[in-house]
């Protein structure tokens, strides 16, 4: 009996210390987020030999290296955004939930090992949607219809591209056309986007799902000449001569304002953003790189963060995570926490008529005058538009520096 107890004790010890991480095999996986009872949002990821992850959306690769194992469970924390997967490892793969507390999101999730196909192709495509599209989205929440520009590339059944709106883009979308059905998706660690549509060579009709708690119908027509409104006309000052100012704390508890010495006689680029916002992440990446490469110039950057986090300490944790991930050296101040509501944000910056979107960028010359306000950001997924923005940014800042 004593011998049997010893054997059982040893077995229990070995079981408790079993390395369940070996079940997450390196190689290709297909993740599936449950958007509705009938719709699945798929995305591809790869587990590398060192057990980190690479989330793959068309040309985009997102490295995920904050992974924790506990017995048969795995917790995968997304970089920057504060969202995470809480999963159980099984013989077949992984099951559990994707959770983003700041966005009040919890979605059922499973992952299948060894699968590369994001969407199943059952039929030969009956349409080719390569080119530009004029699209109108109508949210089912009763919000106003808004316009977008669809930019797609199709090769046989494979489709990549994005939708550009007045306030930003819908990431690196990847999908297929099977018969007359279009399916595209993207997952970036914050937002989960799924587009399902019926298509011809000249018409799109479909539904856009953002996570499992928001959707919009959309209609599109091929229009190679369609352009969105000028992004510098959407956000304005209350009156032409209004001065821009701010006074918010940094993560050290120090209040920083535009009147501080570091901003005097400098060109100042003020970014209204949130650490939860993928378009803001794209813009912050560019700003961080630019500021480092041009540190000898009289230009200063400062970001004003409008956070969903429920406490200031959680908000500053998100800010620190963003700064560490991107190597941001300029101040990122906490302007608001508990909500990213744009009406509330405008109250913090009353010199603006309205805050239309995150990000919004305010350009201030050496005399302290606002010279331009740019709404939204066209990230890498928009291709030529992203290159155009960077070139225009450099040219405009150089012009202000020479004055």
Give a structural overview.
The protein folds into three domains: 99 residues, Beta Barrel (Lipocalin); 92 residues, Lipocalin (Beta Barrel); 156 residues, Glutaredoxin, CATH 3.40.30.10. A nine-stranded antiparallel sheet has the order 4-3-2-1-9-8-7-6-5, with no helix packed on it. It is built from five helices and 24 strands. The protein is α+β, with helices and mostly antiparallel strands and 403 residues long.
The proportion of residues forming helix, as a percent range, comes to 10-25%
The low-confidence runs, each spanning 5 or more residues with pLDDT under 50, are 1-21
CATH third-tier fold name of the largest domain: Glutaredoxin
Distance between the first and last residues' Cα: 91 Å
* Helix and strand element order: HEEEEEEEEEEEEEEEEEEEEHEHEHEEH
Rg to the nearest angstrom?
24 Å
What is the CATH architecture assignment of the largest domain? 3-Layer(aba) Sandwich
CATH class of the largest domain: Alpha Beta
Report the β-strand fraction as a percent range: 35-45%
């Amino acid at each position: 009996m004593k011998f049997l107890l010893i054997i059982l004790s040893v077995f229990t010890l070995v079981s408790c210390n079993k390395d369940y991480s070996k079940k997450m095999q390196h190689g290709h996986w297909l993740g599936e987020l449950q958007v509705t009872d009938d719709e699945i949002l798929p995305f591809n990821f790869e587990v590398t030999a060192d057990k980190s992850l690479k989330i793959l959306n068309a040309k985009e690769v997102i490295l995920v290296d904050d992974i924790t194992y506990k017995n048969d469970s795995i917790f995968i924390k997304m970089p920057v955004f504060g969202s995470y997967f809480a999963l159980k490892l099984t013989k077949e793969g992984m099951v559990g939930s994707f959770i983003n507390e700041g966005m009040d999101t919890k979605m059922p999730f499973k992952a299948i090992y060894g699968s590369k196909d994001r969407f199943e192709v059952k039929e030969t495509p009956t349409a080719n949607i390569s080119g530009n599209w004029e699209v109108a989205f109508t949210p089912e929440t009763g919000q106003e219809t808004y316009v977008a520009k669809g930019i797609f590339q199709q090769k046989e059944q494979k489709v990549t591209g994005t939708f550009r709106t007045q306030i930003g883009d819908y990431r690196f979308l990847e999908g297929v056309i099977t018969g007359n059905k279009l399916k595209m998706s993207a997952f970036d660690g914050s937002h989960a986007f799924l587009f399902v549509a019926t298509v011809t060579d000249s018409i799109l009709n479909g539904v856009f799902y953002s996570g499992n708690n928001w959707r919009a119908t959309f209609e599109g027509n091929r229009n190679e000449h369609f352009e969105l409104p000028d992004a510098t006309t959407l956000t304005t000052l209350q009156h032409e001569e209004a001065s821009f100012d701010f006074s918010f704390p940094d993560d050290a508890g120090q209040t920083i304002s535009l009147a501080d010495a570091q901003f005097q006689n400098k060109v100042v680029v003020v970014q209204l953003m949130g650490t939860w916002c993928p378009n803001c992440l794209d813009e912050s990446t560019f700003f961080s790189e630019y500021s480092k490469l041009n540190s000898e110039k009289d230009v200063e950057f400062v970001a004003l963060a409008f956070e969903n986090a429920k406490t200031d300490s959680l908000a500053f944790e998100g800010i620190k995570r963003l700064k560490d991930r991107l190597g941001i050296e300029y101040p990122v101040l906490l302007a608001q926490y508990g909500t990213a509501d744009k009406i509330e944000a405008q109250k913090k910056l009353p010199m603006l008529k309205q805050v239309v979107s995150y990000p919004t960028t305010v350009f201030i010359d050496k005399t302290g005058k606002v010279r331009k306000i740019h709404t939204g950001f066209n990230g890498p997924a928009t291709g030529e538009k992203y290159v155009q923005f960077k070139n225009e940014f450099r040219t405009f800042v150089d012009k202000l520096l020479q004055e």
